[in-house]
Amino acid sequence: xxxxxxxxxxxxxxxxxxxxxxxxxxxxxxxxxxxxxxxxxxxxxxxxxxxxxxxxxxxxxxxxxxxxxxxxxxxxxxxxxxxxxxxxxxxxxxxxxxxxxxxxxxxxxxxxxxxxxxxxxxxxxxxxxxxxxxxxxxxxxxxxxxxxxxxxxxxxxxxxxxxxxxxxxxxxxxxxxxxxxxxxxxxxxxxxxxxxxxxxxxxxxxxxxxxxxxxxxxxxxxxxxxxxxxxxxxxxxxxxxxxxxxxxxxxxxxxxxxxxxxxxxxxxxxxx
Length: 272
Ligand SMILES: [Zn+2]
Description:
Distance between the termini: 36 Å
Structural class: alpha+beta
Helix content: 25-40%
Largest sheet: 7 strands, antiparallel
Bound molecules: zinc ion
Strand content: 15-25%
């Protein structure tokens, strides 16, 4: 028996280890590989599937897999996962270790983003990524949602409680990697935007609460995602009344000290 649990995302600096059952193939070749695989190695920067691991071994899904940056760390994590000796196995209540921030610093420098000045201006700190995350159900678009285990449990309880009161809550977005946020910056820079223009709309990579796996953007059916109009919905009224009881608080109320726009949809779970 070596089938890893289908409810964990194992995180390494450049590559994520996904349960194959939660991924949708983008090509026929990938579909065949995924149908037999337990775990898929996925490049964080662009989501590309790199290799599929099954009982039969590791099947490369890209040419030159061996030269893929960060592959060694990912293979170590895969061995640990298959041997069930990964720290994840220690139990869901454990503190989750985080990945080092050194690589993020390098990439912020290469983007020309002054992280220190940004941190001072916004009074935000760098947020390291956790080593693993728990499956927290699906978001509005049926994409897997990942959160730290206590946040995942709290979200499930929060949704159930809301449903009992006739309120439907949907997840819009949970955990996001540094690479995901860096990718947004790289694409916008390539289209000719300046760093300052991008920062007016997007948090600097590394500074978002979503990197920690504790933040959740919440929506409700019929409402556009992440719009201020969410504050006029019964779902928002319900959250204001009840979310605190489940450990959730709004991170960016009006006139917050970080100068971040009012985000009635963005809630953070604090494990007490
Ligand atoms: Zn958010």
